[in-house]
Design brief:
The complex is a heterodimer of chains A (309) and B (196).
Chain A: H1 6-12, H2 28-39, H3 68-72, H4 79-95, H5 105-117, E1 121-129, E2 135-143, E3 146-154, E4 160-162, E5 169-173, E6 176-179, E7 188-189, H6 199-210, E8 216-224, E9 227-234, H7 238-245, H8 249-252, E10 263-271, E11 274-282, E12 292-297
Helix pairs in contact in A: 5-6, 6-7
Chain B: H1 11-33, H2 38-54, H3 64-83, H4 86-97, H5 107-115, H6 117-125, H7 128-138, H8 144-151, H9 155-177
Helix pairs in contact in B: 1-2, 1-3, 2-3, 3-8, 6-9, 7-9, 8-9
Classes of the chains: A alpha+beta (309), B mainly alpha (196).
């Protein structure tokens, strides 16, 4: 898998496992690793269960094992290579998860927008304050432009119930949409401009359009779904309003931003260089209203969108 | 430490053992490429299969489990690094390992140093995203679609990032070639700005 690139070819020849082989299946080490796994013997590492979901999607992975050709490329004593690889691994460890404190708020938001834009799968939760003590909630799963949604309302007493409008599409796949009453074969053709654009793309476009160096203020660090997220407030000046207005309506509608000129505040929370929350309040909303909040989570989750059954 | 059992092995454990044997070598190699020693790779492999064992009822079917294992191993390695009080610990280990890179009189080693060490040193100067991408491509042999699945991004994004990472590696190698005494303990300046 070198793409015929001489540099990648050279790198392939330095693969540490060409000289430091995996334990043989009949070896004590091999059996010991199996036993540790099954008996759940604690190891030196933390459990990753609380990390982000692992996307299990696969097409047809190539075999990562070294080939005969690659093995032949190694003809020299190997301890030097092993030591270099060890240093490489150590240095790699020294930079993993180290947040880049050198970025300005605008640059951090821009980077988060770019990362979010590239996300293939994620989940989102839209919560809109109805001004009467209740909330409208839309929870969605996204895979590219395909979406599955559930609708509910939270009443002032805190109880939640599902709340579907008959004509509301709950699943979008490709150019088709399905309502709650549709069977799997009954999807309706939906024009691209008549449905929400992919949320990852839209949220990124909104942030990119709204942010300039002079209009962003860092508010502080807050918890968003268990993550330490940096909260930024964006002041929409005339130029930002103009740029937002130039976005497609179906990029703005999911965030109640079709009328950017009435936006009172636009707040963005980012963590691990991804947009985690967007909040929009308008000047026509009741004082104290929390406006519209959209949270993003489960980036990279194993999500497949299928027609409703 | 062999497992001795008098009772028949339950079906789920039989399936898990098959899974273990099918993926052990690839997973260990994946871990070894990102660990400082074979012992650490053993730990990561055991922990990854431990998670798979606990989640054996909900593992992805077919080829999906392969990428699931690699993705879990990546998290374990990252967690391991975070929980080890990273910087000071690693600095001490670098100091311990670095002397083994001292030139030796063996001509073969000199050749190896000239051909391999500078490239590894250049790789070490890249940021973690670039380095991991290049390792997944050159060492793990992953297809672009697999890398996209592991990272949760689009294949097109992977292709773009790979291209940029390759360019930065070439640039770092060029700098390293003119500074052969460096061992990669510092990050290079980034000629193209942000990596993403």
């Amino acid at each position: 898998m070198t793409d015929g690139d001489p540099l990648i070819e050279r790198l392939s020849a330095l693969d540490p496992v060409l000289v430091d082989r995996a334990p043989e299946p009949s070896s004590t080490r091999h059996a010991g690793i199996l036993e540790r796994a099954i008996q759940r013997t604690p190891t030196t590492t933390d459990r990753p269960d609380h990390g982000p979901p692992i996307p299990p999607r696969s097409t047809d992975p190539d075999d990562g094992a070294p080939t005969g050709d690659r093995r032949r490329l190694i003809r020299r004593p190997v301890f030097l290579l092993g030591a270099a690889a060890a240093i490489l691994a150590i240095v790699a460890g020294a930079v993993v998860f180290e947040p880049d404190r050198s970025l300005s708020p605008a640059a951090a938001l821009s980077q988060a927008a770019e990362n979010t834009d590239e996300a293939l799968t994620l989940r989102s939760e839209y919560v809109r304050d109805d001004g009467n003590g209740g909330f409208r909630v839309i929870r969605s799963e996204h895979r590219g432009g395909d979406i599955r949604r559930t609708f509910s309302v939270i009443k002032p007493d805190g109880t939640e119930r599902t709340d579907y409008e008959d004509e509301e599409f709950i699943v979008y796949i490709g150019n088709k949409g399905w309502t709650i009453n549709d069977g799997p074969e009954e999807g309706t053709i939906v024009k691209p401009e008549e449905r929400n654009a992919p949320y990852a793309e839209s949220s990124a476009a909104i942030v990119e359009a709204a942010v300039t160096e002079s209009t962003v203020t860092e508010i502080g660090v807050e918890d968003v779904r268990g993550l330490e997220a940096t909260h930024y407030r964006i002041r929409l000046d005339d130029a930002a309003i103009s740029r937002l207005g130039a976005l497609r309506p179906n990029q703005l509608s999911a965030f109640e931003l079709e009328s950017p000129g009435t936006v009172l505040s636009l707040d963005v929370w980012i963590a691990d260089s991804y947009i985690r929350r967007l909040r929009v309040t308008h000047n026509y909303e009741a004082p104290g209203s929390s406006g519209t909040t959209v949270e993003f989570y489960d980036f990279g989750a194993d999500i497949t969108i299928t027609p409703p059954t | 430490m062999m497992i001795h059992r008098s009772a028949p092995v339950p079906p789920d454990e039989q399936r898990f053992r098959i899974l273990f044997h099918e993926h052990f070598a690839d997973l260990w190699q994946f871990a070894r490429r990102r660990s400082g020693s074979a012992h650490e790779a053993d730990d990561v492999t055991a922990e990854t299969f431990g998670v798979a064992w606990r989640r054996r009822a909900a593992l992805p079917a077919g080829n999906g489990v392969r990428l699931w294992l690699f993705g879990t191993a990546r998290l374990i390695i990252a967690n391991q690094r975070r929980s080890n009080g990273r910087r000071e610990h690693l600095r001490r280990r670098i100091e311990m390992v670095a002397p083994t890179l001292a030139p030796t009189p063996d001509p073969a080693d000199v050749i190896s140093d000239r051909n391999g060490a500078p490239l590894l040193a250049a790789l070490a100067t890249l940021d973690d995203d670039d380095r991991d991408l290049l390792m997944m491509r050159a060492w793990d042999g992953f297809a672009v679609t697999d890398i996209a699945s592991l990272l949760g991004v689009t294949p097109n994004a992977v292709s773009v990032r790979l291209s940029k990472a390759r360019t930065r590696l070439a640039s770092a190698l060029h700098q390293t070639d003119f500074a052969p005494s460096r061992t990669g303990s510092k990050r290079s300046s980034n000629p193209e700005g942000d990596a993403s």
